[in-house]
Every structure is written in structure tokens, then in C-alpha cells.
Design goal:
It contains nine helices and seven strands; from the N terminus they run H-H-E-E-H-H-H-E-E-E-H-E-H-E-H-H. It has 379 residues and is an alpha/beta fold.
Length: 379
């Protein structure tokens, strides 16, 4: 049974009461069954009962942790490491560096009426090159324009047919909206989760009168235009020697049976391929992976193991590797009943530290081209 985190206090209390009642009932029933089983087999009832009760207590502790415990799995490192200055995150709400913003210089002179000395009444003279500087983040409001194209016509005195300058390419033949506009609408909808109805109201506030159906028409045309690129993605992804595979639920708009589908994702270093499919079964995993023969990193979901094991009707030639985050989660859950897991978690933390060092070195190489010293294997 999957337990989601509960934020409503009253609901949490009710669930806790039900959990305690179920625990007591199972405890009593288990004790009777174990004693009866041991009597029939002639075994030590007390030893078997204690073992069963220990397992039940571990399961109960895990369920309570999932219900009421913190969702974060972060741990305090044994030794506090000092990250490089470039990797430190700024704390608080002070001014933040804005390296990507264009800088606009604004010079603020005195009004002519104020260029008078307050002591002698003489004229003030400008101190060349001397200013008192400050910064301010501002915004230039977006605006829409209606481009009126005038295609020039040409003719020859010989009487040949006139020639007209070509029109710019359109996403929809004879349409009124540019490709830039369609991309802008798509980015706001899919990148920033702004529904078309909300965009319609925002655009009207900025002077553009348009309805949500027209916006949808632009997205539909853009999707048809990008379909060949989407169909070319699998060849790019599955040519990589290492890919990542994952899936998550995807709710459809229609109601009734079959409302819940799944978004399957396969990714390599420079490309991502998504498929929306109605199942999360091993057969679907086989459909997604096809005849891939490389290394697949997964989260431990059984469907991948089933479809790739020897003798299975699937891409058995590929190899599975597990995500360390999911492996680590099992040790975090087991640590409360098996303290020895802390040592394993410490070793996994060292792996994460090596990855962080390599990432910082790679970022430094990008920012400052040249020779970069990577951490040695003895560090």
C-alpha cells in the first residue's frame, strides 16, 4: 500500500487512529496464529512469535514514517565540506548577481534650475567622469505589433510578366500569426503552465484581441510542423550507449475508465523522447525499449527487470543499472532497525561528493577554457 504525505491535521489524526487499531488487531491475530502453528509443528512458539512481531513493528514504523515523517532524505555529512566559491548558493533576500541581464546606462543630470551653488549663487560645473552609481532591476513591457508587409513588384520594359518579392514563410498558409507568435504561446503553455484562456486575457490586457481557439490553432499547426523532429528523436536517443528510462502517471481529460495513462521517458545526454501510453506493464516497457542493446539506468521498477531478464520476450541484450538515489532510499528506510546501514549511507555520500567535484570541475572548464585539474582517485 502506498502512503502519501498528509498535510491536513484532522485527516492525519483519523489515519493514525485507524492505523493503531489495525495494528492492534493484526497483533492479536498474529499471536494466535503463531501459537497455533507452533503447537501443531512442535516448535518454540515464543521465538517465532517474537520474530513475527519484530517484522510487524518494522512495517508499522515504516508506515508511520511515510505518513508523518519528513519527506526529505537529506542527512548531515560527517565532515562539512566547503564547496568552491562558484558553487555556493546565496542565502537570504539580498541583491543577487544578474549576469544575463543587459545593462542600460542611465545618466541623471541636475535640472538647470538646480545647477546653482547654495553658498555663493555661482554656476555649478560638471565633474567629468565622476558619478555616484547604483543599480535597479526594471522591466520593459512586452508589446505586440501588427506587421504590414508591402511586397514590392517589378517589371521589365520588354513586357514580360511582373515579378513580386516573396512573402515571408507562414506557419499556417494564409494565416495571420507568425511562427514567433506560435512559439511564444507554446512556451508559455508547456514551459510555464499558462492555460490558453489565461493567455487570452493577458494578451487582451496588452492590446491584442484574440480568442483561445485561435491560440490552439497555432499550437496545432506548430505540432504538425514539429512532428518529423519528434519522430527523429528515438534514433538519436537509442544510438547512445547509455540511456535513462522512467515513467509517471499522466491523467487524461476524459472521464471514466482509462482516464489514467502513463508518460514514458527515455533520455540520453542531449535528447529526450516521451511517449504517452495506457499501461505501465512489462509489455509496455518492451514496446518503449524496443531492441535497444546498450545500458539502461532505471529506478528499480520490476517491469524493466522482467522484460530484460534472460529468456524474456524483450530487449534482453541490454543491461540494467539502478539509480543510486533509489538504492539509497532503501537503506534510509532500513536504518532505524539496522543501524549498520549508516555506514553504507556514508559510502554513498562519498560517491555523491565525487560527482559534485567532477561537476564543479566541468563547470570551471566551461567558464575558463584551459587546463583544469580533476580530483585524483586517491582524494
Amino acid at each position: 500500500m502506498r502512503i502519501e504525505h498528509v498535510t491536513d491535521l484532522e485527516t492525519a489524526k483519523q489515519m493514525a487512529a485507524l492505523l493503531e487499531a489495525e495494528h492492534a488487531r493484526l497483533h492479536q491475530r498474529l499471536e494466535l496464529l503463531v501459537q497455533e502453528n507452533a503447537r501443531l509443528k512442535g516448535e518454540d512458539a515464543q521465538a517465532r512469535l517474537q520474530l513475527e512481531l519484530t517484522q510487524l513493528a518494522e512495517q508499522l514504523a515504516l508506515m508511520q514514517q511515510r505518513l508523518f515523517g519528513a519527506s526529505s532524505e537529506k542527512r548531515k555529512p560527517a565532515v562539512e565540506a566547503t564547496p568552491p566559491a562558484s558553487a555556493r548558493k546565496q542565502r537570504g533576500h539580498g541583491p543577487r548577481a544578474q549576469p544575463q541581464l543587459p545593462v542600460q546606462e542611465v545618466v541623471l543630470p541636475l535640472d538647470e534650475a538646480d545647477k546653482v551653488c547654495g553658498l555663493c549663487g555661482g554656476a555649478l560645473k560638471e565633474c567629468a567622469g565622476q558619478t555616484e552609481d547604483s543599480q535597479e532591476v526594471s522591466v520593459v513591457e512586452r508589446h505586440f505589433v501588427l506587421k504590414h508587409y508591402r511586397r514590392q513588384k517589378y517589371r521589365c520594359p520588354c513586357g514580360c510578366a511582373p515579378v513580386t518579392a516573396p512573402a515571408p514563410p507562414r506557419l499556417i498558409e494564409g494565416g495571420r500569426y507568425s511562427v514567433d507568435f506560435a512559439v511564444h504561446v507554446a512556451l508559455r503553455k508547456y514551459g510555464f503552465h499558462l492555460p490558453l484562456a489565461r493567455q487570452e486575457r493577458m494578451f487582451q490586457r496588452e492590446g491584442l484581441v484574440v480568442d483561445s481557439q485561435t491560440l490552439w490553432d497555432q499550437l496545432n499547426a506548430l505540432a504538425h510542423h514539429l512532428q518529423p523532429s519528434y519522430e527523429a528523436l528515438p534514433a538519436v536517443v537509442f544510438s547512445s550507449p547509455l540511456i535513462h528510462a522512467d515513467e509517471t502517471h499522466w491523467y487524461m481529460l476524459k472521464k471514466g475508465p482509462g482516464k489514467k495513462w502513463y508518460a514514458w521517458t527515455v533520455a540520453c545526454a542531449d535528447a529526450v523522447y516521451h511517449r504517452i501510453l495506457p499501461s505501465r506493464s512489462g509489455a509496455t516497457a518492451k514496446l518503449v525499449l524496443g531492441d535497444y542493446a546498450g545500458v539502461v539506468m532505471v529506478d528499480g521498477y520490476a517491469a524493466y527487470q522482467t522484460v530484460t531478464k534472460p529468456g524474456a520476450d524483450g530487449p534482453a541484450s541490454c543491461s540494467l543499472v539502478s539509480c543510486w538515489a533509489h538504492v539509497r532510499r532503501k537503506f534510509v528506510e532500513a536504518e532505524r532497525v539496522a543501524p549498520v546501514c549508516a555506514e553504507v549511507l556514508s559510502l554513498i555520500g562519498q560517491l555523491y561528493a565525487i560527482e559534485a567535484d567532477l561537476l564543479h570541475a566541468a563547470l570551471a572548464a566551461i567558464e575558463t577554457p584551459g587546463t583544469v585539474t580533476l580530483p585524483s582517485s586517491s582524494d
